[in-house]
Amino acid sequence: ASPAVRGFGHAVSTCVCCGVTDEPRELEPPTSFSRSLLWQLQRASYQRQGLLAWRPGGLPLQITSNPFIARGYADVIAGFVRDRQRAAPARRPLQIVELGAGSGRFGFYLLRALVAAFARDGDGPPPFRLVMTDLVDGNLDGWLAHPRLRPFVDQGLLDVARFDAEQPAPLTLLASGEIVAAMSWRTTFAS
User: Fold this and answer.
1) Distance CA 190, CA 183 (A)
2) In 60-87, which positions are buried (b, 16+ CB within 10 angstroms) versus exposed (e)?
């Protein structure tokens, strides 16, 4: 019999030879998604595959990780920063934290769009820092070494940190060495 999944938490077996289908049976009792078997399988898959999860034929990412979407986010963030500066000039750059940055593609597009938005204003260096986070340490290393992201790290516009949604903790930024306490985040969340 070959298993097929019908709905969340139920499996149906259909015999390849005769086509007889078993009644659905529950794989696990009702539970929150973050405690489900599907969550555990997804988490293990991301940890095992790392950046390879987004290779061609892997996870789809074009719908959320493209220049058009990034420019939309950048326009909103730039407007927020401008409004904030007019109301009360900030002493520190805005920290933008991307939770689960995955391939890093959205972060790259967002950085390019933000730099362009602030360059149009001509008000000096961009008043932000993007912190890309992920559960997978190999992804963090990959971003820091990536030739398209490295210039942003060197300019102080990008840093990376490990973040586990199941065990939230302060972010330890790998490039700068700073620690950002969760309760002190004055942050815009993206992605």
Assistant:
1) 18
2) eeeeebeeebbbebbeebbeebeeeeee
- Considering the chain, what is the average pLDDT of its residues? 80
Structure confidence at residue 6 (pLDDT): 46
Q: Whose CA is closest to 48, among 108, 135, 110?
A: 135
Find, among 103, 111, 45, the residue nearest to 74 by Cα: 111
Residue 169 has pLDDT above 80, yes or no: yes
- Which pLDDT does position 59 carry in this prediction? 64
What is the torsion angle, in degrees rounded to the nearest 10, for the CA atoms of residue 65, residue 35, residue 49 and residue 160? 60
Say what the pTM is: 0.72
Contact indicator for 160, 131 with CB cutoff of 8 Å: yes
d(CA 178, CA 171): 8
User: Sorting pLDDT into bands at 50, 70 and 90, what band is 31?
Assistant: confident
